[in-house]
Design a protein that fits this description.
Serine Threonine Protein Phosphatase 5, Tetratricopeptide repeat, 6 helices, 208 residues, mainly alpha
Length: 208
């Protein structure tokens, strides 16, 4: 049985070529739309984080900068978020102030500049990093200006606290202990998130 081959006439070839080009164009357009959408989302997150930081909404700014690092860590925006996250956690007005987390964020920021492209912000990042590192050292190992001053407290007499005041003081101590435990839990969660971010940026952990 002979095989019959259908010869493509010029019109058929042009149609097939047209369909191929149309498919390629659709794919390119879809990819461009996705990139524009991602860039728009990234820019909006950055705007919200910056506004929150300037408005002293520390918890919200911390969350937004963390999201930028997690989702766009390979971009310039993600790397700059590491700097602002470190500065945010070193701000003494921040209730969740943490020199340990600030040091880690700023260290990651400085490490990310392997190509030396962030020289315009490197001096500030290096200064904040060194300050955080000093604060994390034992008091006696810090530079003189950051060492604790010796204070002499003289106790003149023993004060007997009435039972009612003692009960009030005990309640206040209990409340302060609960606040301290809550802060320690928050810091632990932040440390776990930062550790996961560090692994993602270093390539040792799975990217979410």
């Amino acid at each position: 049985m002979k095989t019959v081959r259908r010869l493509l006439v010029p019109g058929d070839r042009m149609k097939r070529l047209g369909l191929t080009l149309a498919c390629l164009l659709l794919v390119a357009c879809a990819s461009a739309r996705a990139e524009r959408r991602e860039a728009s989302m990234r820019a909006e997150l950055w705007r919200q984080a910056y506004v929150a930081m300037n408005g002293r909404q520390y918890a919200r700014a911390d969350t937004l900068f963390g999201t930028l690092i997690r989702d766009y860590g390979d971009s310039q925006t993600g790397r700059e978020s590491l700097f602002y996250l470190g500065a945010l956690r070193l701000d003494p007005r921040n209730p969740n102030w943490s020199s340990e987390l600030a040091e880690t964020s700023l260290e990651l920021y400085l490490r990310a500049d392997s190509a030396g492209r962030m020289e315009w912000r490197r001096p500030e990042a290096r200064t904040l990093y060194e300050l955080a590192r000093q604060l994390n050292l034992p008091t006696e190992a810090r530079v003189p200006g950051l060492q604790a001053e010796t204070r002499v407290v003289e106790v003149e007499r023993r004060v007997v606290v009435p039972a009612r005041e003692a009960t009030t003081l005990q309640a206040e101590v209990t409340r302060l202990r609960e606040q301290l435990a809550l802060r320690e839990q928050q810091i632990k969660r932040q440390e776990e998130e930062l550790d996961r971010i560090r692994k993602t940026l270093s390539g040792t952990g799975a990217r979410e």
